[in-house]
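User: My advisor asked me to double-check a structure prediction for 1205_t:CDS:1 before group meeting. I don't want to rely on an old file, so could you generate it fresh from this sequence?
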Amino acid sequence: DAIKKLSYDLFHEHKQNTENELKEWLKLKLEEDEFSSKQLQKSKDKGITFMQLWHKKLYSAI
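Assistant: Sure, here is a fresh prediction for 1205_t:CDS:1 from the sequence you gave:
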């Protein structure tokens, strides 16, 4: 899963950053990637915020 890989890479490359810095970096990376951006938009259209996605899927992956 691409999101889990990004989360893992992010955590291991940026261990000294705060949770908010990690979250912003990951959000930016996801928005820059065409496929991920479309998936984020689909989630948003379904009423799922990035914060909900962060807590449910991303944070648990790292």
